[in-house]
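Quick one: structure tokens for this chain, please?
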Amino acid sequence: MLPQEIIRKKRDGKKLSDQEIKQFIGGVPDQSVSEGQVASFCMATLLNGMEMDERVALTSAMASSGTVLEWESLDLPGPVLDKHSTGGIGDKVSLMLAPIIAACGGFNPMLSGRGLGHTGGTLDKMDSIPGYVSQPDLELFRKTVKEAGCAVIGATKDLAPADRIIYSIRDVTATVESIDLITASILSKKLAAGLDALVMDVKFGTGAFMQDYQDAKALAESIVSVANGAGMPIVGLMTDMNQVLGTTAGNAVEVQEAVEFLRGDNIDPRLYEVTVSLCEELLVMGKLADSNDQARQKIETCLQNGQAAEQFQKMVTILGGPKDFVDKSNTYLQGANVKHEVFASHEGYISAMDARAIGIGIVEMGGGRKKPSDTIDHSVGLTHCAQIGDKVGPKEKPLAVIHAKTKEDAMKMGQTLNDIVEVSGQKPELSDAVTERVAV
């Protein structure tokens, strides 16, 4: 069938067959389907939606549009496991999760992305480490996974190439918000990674891609249903992104917090709960633990005995980073020119904050990209971030310590924090970091 006839069918609200979807998506990488046709297909899908089996067919077709990784030839002694997050502010979970899974007997080929909009990117964080090859060739990638048990790198161009092309078109045609297309975009890369199981961290709140809880849950349910339909074991967790996750937001500062977490020097309770909860689900799905309780015990052991930190160091070393990075990370990570404490204008308890505005502020300081060609300043960001429920004020705990390139940038970010953090006289009721489990 001609591409335009497939578009017409979806435009008219009709259901597409598996073969029609496979044919259309198959023509995207070789350009036998034009950009205009992709844009029309995406808009028709956004407006009319897809049934669940259409979503499964779309995801599978995008996953098989390029290289599909295999791990059997490495004869790995454990399952291949991974997690994906819908993104947030201060979300450095991947940096701890990957080595924890490795320390517990799993293997985690973590294909990560760069920052998108107001949310930070795991790949940008790893680029803070001097010498670290964040986009290795396939041979080095596989070597790292086998020897270190994990590799946090960027996705290769030949992995789900149809998704890369379609996403770039969605970004400029007002079709990003389609749950059908979001689901296929996320899962196509994970299916192409050859995983045995996946856990999804679906965030909601002011700093999340989908702020409304029910919208985020609908996405989680879609992802879980489609992954199961495509034959991949999966669990989704709904996690709160109404504030910075952990105590840092940026690139180098988040890497430092992650290393301190692995060393046991600085473990934020909310960051711990999100990270460990995701790890628990993976260990159970990967049959490395019989229950979530047993999984948590294994995780706590590998953190306390230093095994998780050791796996992280192995990964960094194999991928070209400093051989003593975990022990001396603060000497290797780039520091900012200006460090400035910012305090609340009046005393009280933090009751709410606009986490998205914090992310945008970090981008404006140079910690993210305004356009794809921009160079990131890895040193800028926030540390010692106060959280909801903390007592703050002119002579109390600061809202944050700002790490900036210039004094002007620091003062502007300080004003932003005072504008978007709500301080009240009564201590608010605290919410759970992990609110719901989504599974079929």
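The chain has three domains: 3-49, 72-158+174-329, 338-424.
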